[in-house]
Amino acid sequence: MSLLELRDVHVRYGEIRALRGVTLSVELGDFVAILGANGAGKTTTLRAISGLVKTTGEVFLEGSKLFRRTPDGMARLGVAHVPEGRGTFTTLSVLDNLRLGAWTRRGTSTRDLAHVFELFPLLYERRERRAGTLSGGEQQMLAIGRVLMAKPILALLDEPSRGLEPVVVHELFEALRRINEGGTAIVLAEHKPALALGAARRAFVLENGRVAVGGDAADVRGHELLRVGPES
Amino acid sequence: MTALVQHVASGVASGGIYGSLALAIVLIYRATGVINLAQGELATLSAFGCWTLVDHGWAFWPAFGATLALSFGGGVALHALLLQPLRNSPLLRSVLVTAGLALAVNGLDTWIWGGASRSFHGPFSASAVTAGGVALSKQDLGVAGVSLAAALVTGLLLVRTKLGLGLRAVVSPVEARFAGVRVGALAAVGWGLAAALGAVAGMLAAPSLQLDPNMMQRVLLYAFAAAALGGLLSPVGAVVGGIVLGVFLDLAGAYVHRIGGELRPATALAVLAGVLLLRPNGLLGGTAPERA
Amino acid sequence: MRFKASVFGLAAVLLVAAPVALSQFRTEQLTEVGVTFIAILGLDVLVGHAGQISLGHGAFMAVGGYTTAILMADHGVRDLWTIPVAAAVAGAVGLVAGVTAVRLSGFSLALVTFGLAVAFPALVLRFDHFTGGAAGIELAGKPAQTGHGAGVVVLGRHLSNGDWGYGLTWTVAVACFLLVRWLLSSRFGRALRAVRDDERAAATSGISRAVAKVGALGVSAALAGTAGSLLAIDTAQVGPGTFSAELSLYLLAGAVVGFFCSVRGAIVGALLLQFLPDLARLLPHVGSREAGPATFVLGLAVVLVTLLLPPALRAGTAFARRAEARTE
Asked: What's the whole-model pTM score?
């Protein structure tokens, strides 16, 4: 039984068909990359999983079919979604943002917070500051911090490396690796294939709203380079 | 000098009332993105409710507590009935709904209790307490104390509890949902809390204003000005703004000859318009408030 | 707002026939309907077409009413000539209020106009050397009043005061209606609708949006001022109670219930405001307190209309759900 399964999912934005029958699966503790050009349907796939858009087709979580999905409902089921905007509470402090990360969990300890600060000392320094004043990279770290606090079974990340400097991106992927090692499955939508394929175990390439290629990261890498050409 | 202290004291007392109502306005604005035009009328309704209980033999403080609880429930119910159905509609609709609510509540008050004003015996006697050679009225001290206590309790709730964190989070409803926050339920709590705070304001104001259906109209204006001073999104700003405004209006009324009782609303309007025009983020400044 | 000639014709016939067929009391009521109609027309322009909210139209009416009263009582200006002056003065106040609306989002205008509604009656009492304070200003029998209170001769026919008031009010009302229709179909009207439909549209420039907003409030206030002026002339007096703080809310309610969309709506709203107390008396347990139940029912009607009729209210996305961002 897969952790997450999409079967023939379609999404329409008015006249435009964004997803035309996407089928993919994610195993427990998996690390999956969703690749493709802009507009191929990466973001839409994540939104479909979270219930932000109306879908036809089926979505299964831990074997059970999910009917009316909502972002907060999914969060309560243990699926953390970090959207492109990073989901930062701009008017609240860094500390409050982290605490909100753990909103769906029963009891949190200061140990969880300490763990996050250990990983991201910068966040500790900035803990009382309004999150809106953080830089892009810092907000991304904060988003990762919230995922850590949530301890979800599945984390959906939408282009987390966008707009970040290479050094920061490296740290970011380190953190993702750690999260994955902690047992959280990761689904990563990425525009830059090389990065994602370096970290992921499996990958799906979307083209025009459909899965064009899917399989182990190594195999897909071969395909990808053939098609698109080297990209950093 | 003693006169000055007395004016400041009464200003803080009125300001406490304005601040409580302003806090209610800010809470609802943060929770549902709407300025509740009926906040004043609901406070009046609560005051009438308290009066009725006292009239039936209840002691004041139990009546006060019961009114708070009922007001909280009423606020939650109003949110469910009026705001939730409109959550996907343009905000203009929600504002209009609160305008209709204001009319309906005002009419209801007149229908049930009549339009004539009646006296409301508050818990604080009219006598004075002398401290350091200055006579301060117990009424002023009591009102200031209770309103500030209410503000403090609300503040502690917001800052130190998980519920409060959620209430603060719903100002960004999209992000809140991603975090798993049930925005609707928390907004309802926000409305309940706001209704309770409004009830505090109403019950504190009634002894000096005389209880009638239009009692809180001017107070609502002062509360809007106070909330605006705080930037409309800041709970602290609303309370501080209320006190600042209360003291300012009392001092202006006493020391500037032109500004007598009847010019008070106009002065408040000037403050409101001035703040909105010149400093929309409130006097506490900072980055632009964004209700996402 | 298409009007078939038959509807127009019928309306004209009814308007002329009413004072003849009905009692003096009913005629007076219908005169007041005309006054309210003009005020609600103003609100329609502002709320329905420009998507801005005003809670202070009672204050604009008061400005118009007091302007007329002061001109008549203190300066002997004939009542008819005070009407355009009252409209202009009220319109000017509206323009000033509009300036605050320009830079700000919809809530700010609502708050400021609410403040106007509450502060104005107090101002009336404060500046009592102008306004007659609590006693108000008496206009009956004054030389400035057409007919001096004894009736008016029009086209050889002698009309009672009530009928004269009725005719004057409805003539002005029809004129206002035509003016508004013309205005809304002009470039100004298009600019208004652009403001309503998307305050931050890239299509319209910032300047024309600002002009539209300020202009809408000015026109709207001028109409309310006209209504206030006519009210003063019809009832031959003004006082602080004439334009209470609640009046603004009643007007808004009348506009909402009349669905904002067209003249038909304004008529419905005006009729409702006038006759609701009478209807309310039909409810059981309602004694002499008809004001309360009528107000309650009116408020309830606003709530229900807002909740239940999605397409009818062309609610502006002027208050977009996104950030409380300033317009520029």
From this structure: 0.86
